[in-house]
Each structure stands twice: as C-alpha cells, then as structure tokens.
Design goal:
The structure holds 3 protein chains of 3 kinds. Chain B is built from 10 helices and 10 strands. By secondary structure, chain B is of the alpha/beta class. In chain C, the strands form 3 sheets. Chain C has a two-stranded antiparallel ribbon with strand order 1-2. A two-stranded antiparallel ribbon of chain C has the order 3-4. A two-stranded antiparallel sheet of chain C has the order 5-6. Classes of the chains: A mainly alpha, B alpha/beta, C mainly alpha.
Chain lengths: ~300, ~260, ~350
Amino acid sequence: MDTLLQQLINGLTLGAVYALVALGYTMVYGIIGLINFAHGEVVMIGTMVAFTVIVSLAGSGMSPLLVLGIGLLVSVVVCMVLGWGLERVAYRPLRHAPRLTPLITAIGMSIVLQNVAMIVWGRNYITFPPMIDKQVYELGGASFTNVQIAIVTLAALVMLGLIYLVHRTRIGMAMRATAQNPHVASLMGVDIDRVIAMAFVIGSALGAVAGCMVGSYYEIAHYQMGFMLGLKAFTAAVLGGIGNLAGAMAGGLLLGVIEALGAGYIGELTGDFLGSHYQDIFAFIVLIIVLMFRPSGLFGERTGDRA
Amino acid sequence: MSERQILLEAHEVAKHFGGVKALHDVSLTIRRGEIYGLIGPNGAGKTTFFNCLTGLYRNEGGYFVFDGVKLAADAPHKAAEVGIARTFQNIRLFGNMTAIENVMVGRHLRTGAGVLGAITRNAATRAEEAAITRRAEELLHYVGIHERAHDYAKHLSYGDQRRLEIARALATEPKLLALDEPAAGMNGTETEALRVLVEGICRDGVTVLLIEHDVKLVMGLCNRVAVLDYGEKICEDVPAVVQKDPRVVEAYLGGSVA
Amino acid sequence: MNDRLRKSAAWRQHWVGLLLVGATLLAVPFIAALGGQAWVRIANFAILYVFLALGLNIVVGYAGLLDLGYVAFYAVGAYTYALLASPHFGIHLPFWVILPFGAALACIFGVLLGAPTLKLRGDYLAIVTLGFGEIIRIFMNNLNAPINVTNGAQGITLIDPIRIAGFSFADTTNILGLTISGPQKYYFFLVALAIAIIIINVRLQDSRIGRAWQAIREDEVAAKACGINTRNIKLLAFAMGASFGGIAGGVFSAMQGFVSPESFSLMESITILAMVVLGGMGHIPGVILGAVLLTGLPEALRYGIEPLQRALFGRMIIDPESLRMLVFGLALVLVMRFRPAGLWPSSQRRRELTESTD
C-alpha cells in the first residue's frame, strides 16, 4: 500500500513535468501540424541556463529562493527567445514545403542544439547545486519533499495561466481561431505569423519551467537529457490527443503515474521476469494500446479546444 | 417488376450525425440499364446517401441489396468490388499521377499481379500490364481525353478532370456508376457533352445513378428521378411527374407556392 | 532512318553511362584503400545505408507512411544473424539460410506492428512506430536475464563472417596476383546485393502495387473508391520495408562481427529517415545519394575537422566529435531550407513544389 501511494506521488511529480513539456508540443502541433522535435532540446537548454545562473549567483549572498527565481526567469526568457528564433529561422521559410521537410529541419535543429550544449556545458553530467533545504514529509507511509510540492504547485499555476491565456485573451482567441482554420483566421484579420510565433514562444517558456523543475528534482543535468524527456512528453501529448491542451495536461499526468506504477510493480506483475529497467517501455506500450482503441488519443480531437 | 430487373434496392436507409438526421429511412429501387436521378436542395442528404452506398459512411439503419445480394459495404473497396463505382462532388483524382496512370489505378481491382510478379516481371505480369495499359487507353478514348493521357491529372481542365474521374470509375468494371454532381461548375457546352457521355455509358450497359443540381440536365437525361428533402424521399417517378409534384416544387422554392 | 540513328545514339549514351558507373563502382574499394581500410569500411556502410534508405523509402516515399521506428527491423535482422551464427548459442548456420530467415522474421514483425496501427493518422503512426523501435531496443538491452538471450548491453561478439563454400569474406586473399582485403570483399558482395535491391525497387515502383501505393499517398479516399484495399496495400509496404531492413541487419552483423543495442537507437531511425527525405523522397537515385552523403559526410568531417582546426588555430578549439555532429545538424537544416523537396527529387515532386509556392 505504501508503495502504491509512494509511486503515485512520484508519478504525479514526473507527470507534472511531462505535462508542461507536452503542452509545448501540442500547441505547435495544433497550429501548424509540426512535430517540433527540437522542443526537448529547448527544455534541456532551459535546464542548462538555469544551472549556469544559479551556480554563478550561488556565492553572491543572495537568498537561495531569490537565486532560484532569477535562474528560472533568465531560463524562461532565454528559451522564449530560442523558441522564437527557431520558428523564425528554421520553420517559417518551410511553411509551404512538403510535410516531412520541417520534420527533418526539426531533427537537424535538435542535433545542433544538443551539440552546442555539449560544446558549452561539456559532455559530463552536471550537478545542480541544492538551493533549497530539502524537507521530507511523511504521509501514510509514503514520503514526499517540499521540492515535489513546489513542482506540482508551480505546474498547476502555469497551466491555469495558460488556460486563461488561451480562453480569455485576444491572442488566445487568435490562436484558437488559427488552429481551427488558418486561412479563415487570416481573412478575419488574425496575424498568422504572430500567432505561430506565440505558440513557439509560449511553448518554450513552459519548456523552460519544466527544465528547471527537472534540474531541481533530479539535481542533475546532461546535454542529452532533452531527448528522452521530449520523447516521453510527445508521447503524453499524443496519448491525450495531440493538438488538445487539456489532453496534453491529462496525458502528461497519466504517463507520469503509469511510468511510476509500472516501474514499481513490473517485477510483481511478471513474476520477476522483467525488472524495473523496463520502465521506459511502459510509456510506449500504453500509447500503442490506447491508440489501437482510440485512434485520436484519449481526448479525441475536440478541435474547439485546439490552440 | 421482376427481381432480375432490379439492380439496387435501398431499404429504409438511415444515417444521423449526432442529433442531426441526415437520412431518414430512405428506400428506393434502381432498375438495370436506367439512368436514375437523385435530386434535392442543398443539404438534403444526397451525398450522404452516396457515401452510405459506397461504404464511406456506415448507415445506422436499413440496408442495400445490390444485384440480388445484401451489401456488407463496411469498406469502400468492397463496394467497388461488387460493382459500384463512384465519382466525387469535389473531384478526387491522383493529381501527381498522369491521366492514364489514374485510369490504370482503376484497373487494380480487376487485376492480380502481386509483389513477386512485380519483382520477377514474368510473362503473366507483363501480359497483364499490357492489358491494363490497353484498357486504360481505350477508356481515355471513350471519355474523349486520350490526347491528355500523359499529362498530370492536376493539369487537366476542369471538364477533363470530370471525364477522367469517370474513366477511372469505369475502369473498375462497375454495374452501377454513381456520379456525384458531375456537371457542377460546367458551362453549357461541357454539360451537353457530359449528357452525351452519360447516355453512351448507359447504352453500353452500365446503370447510372446521378446526383445533380442542374434540374434541366436531370430531367432531360434520367429515366426516373427521386427527390430528397431534409433526408427524406418525398417523391420517386418519371421526370415528367416529378416536375409537377407540389411537394417537389415546395422543397425547391421553400414553401412559397400556395 | 534518322530516328533509328538517334535511338542508337541514345542507347550508346545509355551504355556509356552504365559502363562509367560500373567502372567507378569497381574502382572505389581500391581507391578508398589508398586512404586505409577504414575508408573501404565507410564505403561498405554507405551501401548498407543505401539498403536501409531504400527499404524505408518504400514505406515513407511510396506509401506515404511516416515510420520513425524503422531501425527495429534492422535490429531484428541483425540479432537473428548474430544469434544463429555465433558462439553465443553455439549455432553456426550459413548466411544464405539466415539472411532470408531474418528478412522473413523482420517482415513478420512489420505485419504484427502494422496490422493494428496502420489505420492511425500520419503523425500518430509516427509516434507508435517510434515507440515500437524503442521497445525492441530496450528488450535487446535487457534480455540477458533471467535467460540470457541477447547478452544485454554487452552485445554479441565473434559473429561468423559471410562464407561461401569455404571462401570467407573476413580475411585477405590473393586472386590473380591482386590482394583483396576482407572489407573489399564485402564491398563487392554489398554492391551485388545493392544492384539486386535497386532493381527490385524500380520494378515495384512501376507495377500494379507501386501505382496503388502512389494512389494511397495521393488520396486515400479516392484510392479506396477505386477498389484498393488500402489496409492490405499499406501493410504490404510496411512488410516489404521491414524485410529490406532485416536483410540489411543480417549483413551488418556479419560484416561487423559484433552487435549491441547501441547500434539500433532512435537516432539511427532518424538518420535513415533523413537520408530518404534529404535525398529526395520516393526517388530512387535521390535516396541513394542521400544515404551515401549522410554516411560519408560525418566521416569526412571526422577526418577533416581536426587537421582543419590545427591549420587554422594551431590547436584544437572545439571538441571535433561535437563539431562534427553540429555540422551534420546544420547541413540537414540548410538542405531542407534551400531544397525542400530534397537534393535530387523526382521531376514530378519538384514541379509540385514550385507550383505550391506561387
């Protein structure tokens, strides 16, 4: 029982991160139908930037929370600029190219970003300096930390903010209109270029937040970390029904929980035939099963909600 | 009317989208060798009926009997297999294939070369390929666009694209050719040429089901006509009778006829 | 008369072209050997990637199905060979038994994956295939316990080379006074296989099946209405592509003498896809060019960057390995930017593109 609760808590934390990253994929996909393979790398850059800022400010005598805050802020801004730049330089010129062309560009950008990160931050694992004194709480035999609470709370706040943005603001309306029908939206006076750029910028900002969370949760960073994280998050987005914001959030949380439970129980389930190093296959097996029965993901294509 | 004379029988076919009833228990019979018109105002359910018949949609109620056999048309290729070929309202050709290639694709169903045949290019496969090409050329001749055989389908004129679509459908050796608004967007000359073509197809033994907006064309061409309005068949008869039916007039003019 | 003259001239040109290509193909391993056997191995890998790219081209280029887990079939072929021709299980079957068997097994995997998933829309299919590729890799990585099937991350070593009647492809022999090294022998074996595979691809493309694939790519609904059983025909593309992957895997095993899960990462699938798209999707010469370039470029960079940096700056400024991949990534981006239909697209696709932009 305590394992179940423990795995649920861990899964929820991980799921919150997946959800934030998944939103970046789903927003871009919803508007231009592109799998932005480089998004995982944007998240990685976010982690790395936050790391650099925090390390350089760590000895300055500022309060640890302030340092963390600045790290987060700088990382968000850098990623927004990066996301904007990616769209402007790499994807915009390919708006009318064959479908697979921008996909290859995205893969190319992903390779470029990874190797830039390797040149800048080195090929070894980087240890995140612990800025917050970790407090461990006990609940019904399971334990969780203040870092986990912070991650889940922050993720929830950011997602609420996004929902507000998409449903209650002008730019949000423009985004939803573009997702529905870019041509008609442009006839109605929506600046499509701006909307697409916004999708990248917002998605990258969410990615940066997620990156900082991963860094402070695992206290470790690596130039290749974005790849698997991005892959999982993309899986989460598809699981929820790609293009659908609520779907990405739910898909992310679900995937996190499934993975945590899977890793915790796989041994028991298979009579110790498969061990916990099979953790990574759960995401994909669940995905394949879900798509077999619900070909457009769990939350279908509620196009009205696409942003 | 004997069983042998009937080619297609629709039995209380019903289809709805969410709460909207697109087809409301539509029954009709099409006889062998006739040109049967299906008309009605916009949104009356004509194309929905087509899509149910050709397996693109699954009808919730009712069934079709085609050539004496109940249709299990849960997949479009099966409808083509039993002998129902169709064209589309918004022409759907393989744009980046040449005209003749489009027709050759239509022969897919009635030919059988597989991967092994393709790789070994044995005598049987070569003979079959030659037959496919020959038949495709004949069909392009038949619809009168053989001069454009090696042009990409998307480069053909609008009228020629319609003809190509018909040739492709005929390549599947249909018993029933279902044409979805073939005259849409055509000028008078083109429509007249189309009329001659459809009459010829019928004379050559293919029954034709025609959805059309152009009432004049339908009345001049069809042996019998059914009228759909709000998903219901309100009338089915020879054109002369249908034309005078008050319900039809009402459906078209929106009830302003007193 | 004039016409016949012109025709014979065209034929002569045709033959001259073929002879030139043939002579080049013959000369490559000996020219490459001047720079060391490593270059012959690179040439061999280029041909191996031609197999893979052509196989994936059937799936992506002809049938229009985005497969991001293609490497799984390559892995199935490679491990089949490795397990049936190595001391790992003590089984040593001849290659002409295992290669077809590996291809068939990969084909079965293709059908098993394809049958339930091919109804999925393009990008959903992409992620499912990607997931499948990862699942296969993770299993190869971990199936060393409780029963040691794949030997886990260490991989399988001492795999038998290809042998024909006692003639091994692994070591150097003298034929008519000419010294031919192991890699050079493999080169000729690979070229022969490549020619066969290219012929198969060309023939498939110009066949009833090839037309059906193209029709599905153009307009699936219309293809169905023409009586094409799209599910089966897509499955066929998937199975064909998988078989090619299986063959390539078997050859890879024999050539390397060693396989490990590391060779079958997602990056590998992506690289093969990049070869297809960068070269010119659906166009056989383009795909071949893409495969050769993307194999050759990173290698050329590997050997070129270090001396270049030393010459320019007098010392190593940037880690050559990351710079190499950086240039590779940039090359992908730039080619897509300036030649969106690929470096050598079919004339048809090029036209398609210039039209959509005006």
